[in-house]
Amino acid sequence: MTKPPRQIRLNLNLQTAGRHDAAWKTLPDAAGLVTDVDYYVRVARLAEKGKLDGIFFADSLGSLSENSVRRPWRGLDPTVLLSAIAQHTSAIGLVSTVPAIHGSPFVTARQIASLDHVSKGRAAWNIITSQNPPTLDALGKTEALDSETRYRKAGEFVEIVTGLWDSLPQEAIVNDPTRDLYIDESQTRPVEYEGEFYSTNAVLPLTGGHRGRPVLFQAGASARSREFGATWADALFTGQRTKQLAQRFSADVKGLAAQHGRDPEKLLVLPGLWVIVGDTEQAAHARKAELDAQLDADYLLEQLAERLGIAASRLVLDEELPYDELSAPLEDTLVARHREQIIAEARGRLTVRQLLYNNLTGGHRVLIGTPEQIADDIADWVDDGASDGFNINIDRQPDGLESFIDGPVAVLQNRGRFRADYEFETLRENLGVA
Ligand SMILES: Cc1cc2nc3c(=O)[nH]c(=O)nc-3n(C[C@H](O)[C@H](O)[C@H](O)COP(=O)(O)O)c2cc1C
């Protein structure tokens, strides 16, 4: 018997006005957008109409960044916002980004478990380990940790959070009015933890989730990050700009998961993908060109140079990248990976000018085309072991999201590659990582 084709996983990576840096400029008034809960609820309901797996909110814990002064960016605490969205949706997953090296594991355990309860099993925690200057400044920290120390610290954080989620098992809630006994403490599993960075002695005063633990996502780029993700995560959010690099990444992390005794099928790889949909290829390109025309090309050139780790003066607009100057080793793993991905995508194909409009600031692959072309590409990556699906970025919401749902999603549904309806109550079950 032949195996049915793999089901594709699709999240919406919900950004303020959308992934395109100029999207907000085309709105009548974006002044209140960052804090407009009604807008986010509207977009979330639309994503649920398309039966997407989850809504994913990236987040930056920190002071104003370059991004947030140049356009409406992040603002609302994602866990609070998702709790509001939970009340207006019934099936879609809710993925909140919270750091694992700042703050308190106890507070995070309670927050995410609370989101899981108020959403009846739809919460996920996206674990991040960033320590960029706006974060360090805001938190009054002067020094960044080296990679090894950072992941040791994050490992302690996650161990405590997951331990706390298991600390009050359902069976410990004996609920016995005749004995004035609600919780039988002998059945709890207190977390007594004395680590290098964190310590706690606690039982979480609520069960760790509506039906089992919330889902764990993780976002990182380095080899150390892959090891960490393969240990802890159910799904990895990653930037992969070519199929070949994505295949390598997937094989690597799934291999690591197997080494840890895990089922590699239960570690999902979900690269970011920015889609621009049109009825014809020409219409899709025209839509993008219209938005691109409102971008600041000088700024983008600086961004490209930064991502490549060279001076902007070394880049010539209508020529290819100076590849011979791009081979020196780089210390910063994120820049090194950006450089590797940009080179793999651009060599022999794109000039510097073309690269500028290729989602530099978001880092994710751009796919422009008709519903069929986009559906084909998505299925092709999944069939060829490059990913299990995608974290979808939309150029501008809500109209770009409508086109994605009515277009590529509908095509994939018709082909039996994407759900026609939610099958289960919890995100963990719907994602196939139960
Ligand atoms: C696809 C992707 C998404 C990320 N999303 C966020 C985010 O929303 N907020 C954040 O502060 N850091 C984010 N990060 C940063 C990572 O958590 C991490 O700090 C960074 O990749 C550096 O760690 P590494 O060198 O181990 O990869 C993201 C990284 C990747 C690769």
Automatic annotation (TrEMBL):
MF (Gene Ontology): monooxygenase activity; oxidoreductase activity, acting on paired donors, with incorporation or reduction of molecular oxygen
Binding site for FMN: D59, T97, Y151, S222
Annotated Luciferase-like domain residues: 35-387
Family per similarity comment: Belongs to the NtaA/SnaA/DszA monooxygenase family.
Keyword annotations of the record: Flavoprotein, FMN, Monooxygenase, Oxidoreductase
Listed Pfam families: Bac_luciferase
Top EC class, one word: oxidoreductase
Keyword Flavoprotein listed: yes
Name the UniProt record assigns to this protein: NtaA/DmoA family FMN-dependent monooxygenase
InterPro entries per UniProt: Diverse_substr_monoxygenases, Luciferase-like_dom, Luciferase-like_sf, NTA_MOA
Record-annotated membrane-spanning stretches: none
E.C. code: 1.14.-.-
